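haha ok so turns out i had the wrong file open the whole time. this is the CORRECT one, sorry everyone. sequence first:
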Amino acid sequence: RELRDQQRLTERRLAGVAFTPDRRAALVALRDDQGVMVLKVEGTKVTTERERIASGVAPYAIDVASDGRWAVVGNAGLAGLAADFARQLGDADTVTLVDISRRPFRAVQHLTVPSVPEGVALSGRFPYLQTGDVVEMEIEGLGRMRQEFYRAGSPRTSSEA
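then structure:
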């Protein structure tokens, strides 16, 4: 199927795009404007209600899980912006986990990752991260990070708070 509609989302740069498995929505990374725009797709017609998802700085790559529950956005951080200040130190590259199981879509988790996540992917076959998993990372002389995962919308225990 070929989409023929055009939508002006911004005057600035866009990056990744991904369609939901049901082909009713497309997620578009607004690289210079920060965030992800959700487009409504009906057959060959594309419209926008200006629904946006919060992301990190300079969203770049997007992938959608084949089960239609999750999307992930790789945020390139300051290095992904077209500006002189983009070369400064102190950047925070992140990945945003998005719940796309119901509308409006919403960001449910932001994870700090090392150095410019230019590509991201979700596997439909292998549940790499599950409720209760813990990711810990330590950089000598810089610090330690601990991230515990929980199901979006579920009550968190005091150890998770």
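The radius of gyration is 17 Å.
again sry for the mixup
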